[in-house]
Amino acid sequence: MNALHTRRSLLCAAAVAALGLSGCGFALKAPPPLGVRSVALQGFAPQSEMAAAVRRALPREVRVVTSPAQAELLISARDDRFERSVVSSTAAGQVREFRLRVSLRFSLSTGQGKLLLPDTVLEQTRDMSTIETAALAKEVEQDALLLEMRDDLARQLLRMAATVAPAR
């Protein structure tokens, strides 16, 4: 019975928190309205994680099309890069800290080819400590950081696109 009581208490606390948050105007971060219905992604590598981040960040009403001619907005990737470099190491040569860097050079145009934003570079950098005895955990941490960094770049890109995209 004690576990049942604990579970009910947690459910009640969650319900009270949800009601409290809904009353204060709290809302999850929504993507900016783009003012377009279709977007084409061009120049990204096949299976690009950055392209996937852009797709995730797009508002629900915007569909991704394959042909630039069908798109109201064309996002052209010129360079989509991930780099990992050593920041510090021990006297014995063991790596203690890495620097993760994700960058995207892109331009924005209409589907008809009118340039809206010339080549622009967005970049995210994070330092990450490492330990050989926790290699698997540090790999998972690196993957989570990279996902967060790419998602942040995609949101920045869409905020920029929202300011220059042609209005319907």
From TrEMBL:
Name of this protein: LPS-assembly lipoprotein LptE
Family: Belongs to the LptE lipoprotein family.
Topology within the bilayer: Lipid-anchor
First-listed, main subcellular location of the protein, grouped into a coarse class: membrane
Keyword Signal (UniProt): yes
Assembly, per entry: Component of the lipopolysaccharide transport and assembly complex. Interacts with LptD.
InterPro entries: LPS_assembly_LptE
Listed Pfam families: LptE (PF04390)
Signal peptide coordinates: 1-29
Subcellular location: Cell outer membrane
Functional description taken from the UniProt entry: Together with LptD, is involved in the assembly of lipopolysaccharide (LPS) at the surface of the outer membrane. Required for the proper assembly of LptD. Binds LPS and may serve as the LPS recognition site at the outer membrane.
UniProt keyword list: Cell outer membrane, Lipoprotein, Membrane, Palmitate, Signal
